[in-house]
Amino acid sequence: MNLPKDVAFFVCDFETTGVDTDKDYPIEVGGVFTDNNFNIIELYSSMVHWQHVVDKLNIKVNTWPEPWDVGFHYHQITPKQYTHLAKSKNDIFQNLWALRDAIINITGADKVILLSDNIQFEYNFMKRIFNEVSNDWPFHYCGWDTSLLLEATGVGDPKDPPHRALPDSLQLLDSIREAMNRVKVIGM
User: For residue 91, what is the domain's CATH number?
Assistant: First the structure.
């Protein structure tokens, strides 16, 4: 299976305060920029500053307020880590734009496509970050949800742990590569 040469990918993942993309907040974004053959070009990771979240936190303790404490069970990001490491949405916007432009220059791609094993989740959280800063969008208008590919090839969704955004993205990339190898073996 040959993918178009004019595409590159941003295999991404978020750690969040919960799973409701309307009420919860993306607190960490991580991803891997790749070429069309899923060769790693650049890694990206950042915690995302949301004043609403900071206002609810008591950084003297290492637990999140309810109902965000459920997310902590998975990502293990403490409120103190979050408040000290989170970057502004504008910084993340600028960083991802610059990386996207660099990837296009390196690969010759016309577009960078968001790729995830739950693209609606990641796409909506990415839009929340970008809409806070600008109406501009650095990625292609459609994303790729890899769930069906991973299921159809028997690879399945990446397994736990790690539950941090960048390691989860790298784990998903490994699963995608394995699925693509299986597709090549069966002659698609």
Answer: 3.30.420.10
